[in-house]
Design a protein that fits this description.
Blueprint lengths: L2 H6 L1 E2 L3 H6 L3 E5 L2 E6 L3 H10 L1 E5 L4 E6 L3 H8 L12 E7 L5 E11 L2 E6 L4 H11 L6 E4 L4 E7 L3 H8 L2 H8 L6 E6 L2 E6 L8 E7 L3 H12 L4 E3 L2 H10 L41 H7 L7 E7 L10 E5 L5 E13 L6 E7 L9 E6 L2 E8 L8
Parallel strand pairs: 1-3, 4-14
Antiparallel strand pairs: 2-3, 4-10, 5-8, 5-9, 6-7, 7-8, 10-13, 11-12, 12-13, 15-18, 15-20, 16-17, 16-19, 17-18, 19-20
Helix pairs in contact: 3-9, 6-7, 6-8
Length: 386
């Protein structure tokens, strides 16, 4: 990254906190973000064994309010947002008319006529613009509050204990009893927050949406309360290895504008049978293209790969037929993400491969600097918490 790029990147409200903690910073999605504070391995293990604290303030927060907010989202996204219960959340996608994924999202329903769409950092401006365009004609207001909102996450087996210790007595029960993919307002460290129980690490955890001007106060309170319980600040590197172990896709790696939800194994989020309030079939952006692909075999399939050696696969490496004595065979796909798994002790990767080699147990290889390193196709969730 050049100095010119670094000066153009935006900074979250917690930037000075990261600098004070000695974080290594990197450009990500147009933002200066902490890559690591201590070591990738230590931060990864802290999340698996205790807890990690993440700055996610680079994500986009776009609110839709009004009588037809749900209908507007039904038209704009592939899922049925209007069917989400108040206080619940759902994973969804926004697609182009040709079915290509523009971004993957989490949609929260905060009230009957109030939805929150959380978009990935680099895609947030275009998601906001697309929602404004697609909501035209509906009785709803689209309000991008990304710059006014900070988002931090506490992830790990001790996340609930840490958060509950800072939560106002009247809200503790709501936090402790919160279901997965749910959200509710709560006062945490004296700050009014929207608390959600989702996550991107494969562990239990919470996300806290607060006004940007209260971010530092919340961050410091969480660090102080969590440190005795093993919580550490964690950067993008640990976040990436954690989400990969959990088999969660990353936009720009597994998802992009050349990919449909079906190729990515996410066809379940596409609701082709959506209907309006009168029970009539409901059209949405990309529906025709996605319907045409729903029952046809994709040209490539996203799979998990488990390494049988020690050398890891990396994004962009070729997946090949396994040859004799380490020889590189015919190319059958490409790696999208890969790391040596700190939790499992062997290399793991996600890759797009041709359908004929996508079955579980298929023995393949990855071209690692001219040598065919052995891998086998496995289910796409490498790690499951107890």
């Amino acid at each position: 990254m050049t100095e010119e790029q670094s000066t153009q990147d935006k900074r979250t409200p917690l930037y000075d906190e990261h600098v004070a903690l000695g974080a290594s910073l990197t450009g990500f999605g147009g933002w200066q973000m902490p890559l690591r504070y201590s070591s990738d391995l230590a931060e990864h293990r802290a999340v698996r064994e205790a807890a990690g604290l993440f700055d996610l303030s680079h994500m986009g927060e776009i609110h839709l309010t009004g009588p037809q907010a749900g209908a507007a989202l039904d038209h704009a996204l592939v899922g049925a947002a209007s069917k989400i219960g108040v206080g619940r959340a759902r994973y969804s996608m926004i697609c182009a008319p040709d079915g290509a994924v523009l971004d993957d999202l989490i949609v929260y329903r905060l009230a009957d006529e109030h939805f929150l769409v959380v978009a990935n950092a680099g895609n947030a401006p275009r998601v906001s613009a697309a929602l404004v365009e697609r909501a035209a004609g509906f009785d709803t207001v689209v309000d991008d509050r990304s710059d006014a909102t900070a988002l931090v996450a506490v992830q790990g087996p001790r996340a609930e204990e840490i958060l509950a210790g800072l939560t106002a007595p009247g809200d503790v029960e709501a936090v402790r009893g919160m279901r997965y993919y749910a959200a509710a307002p709560a006062t945490v460290a004296g700050i009014d927050a929207l608390v959600a129980r989702t996550g991107y690490t494969g562990e239990d955890g919470f996300e806290l949406f607060v006004p940007a001007e209260r971010a530092v106060e919340l961050w410091r309170a969480l660090l102080a309360a969590g440190e005795p319980l093993g919580l550490v600040p964690a950067g993008l590197s640990a976040r990436d290895s954690l989400r990969l172990e959990a088999g969660m896709p990353l936009y720009g790696n597994e998802l992009d504008e050349t990919t449909t939800p079906y190729e990515a194994g996410m066809g379940r989020v596409v609701k082709l049978d959506k209907v309006d309030e009168a029970g009539a079939p409901l059209d949405f952006v990309g529906r025709d293209a996605l319907a045409a692909r729903a029952h046809s075999e994709p040209a490539r399939v996203l799979v998990g790969l488990r390494g049988e050696g020690r050398r890891p696969a990396r994004a962009g490496y070729d997946v090949v037929q396994r040859g004799l004595d380490g020889a590189v065979g015919a190319v059958v796909g490409h790696v999208t993400s890969g790391v040596p798994s700190p939790t499992l002790g062997y290399p793991i990767a996600m890759a797009y491969v041709t359908p004929e080699v996508s079955a579980e147990g298929t023995r393949l290889a990855v071209d690692v600097r001219g040598r065919a390193e052995p891998f086998v196709v496995v289910p796409l969730q490498f790690y499951k918490r107890a």
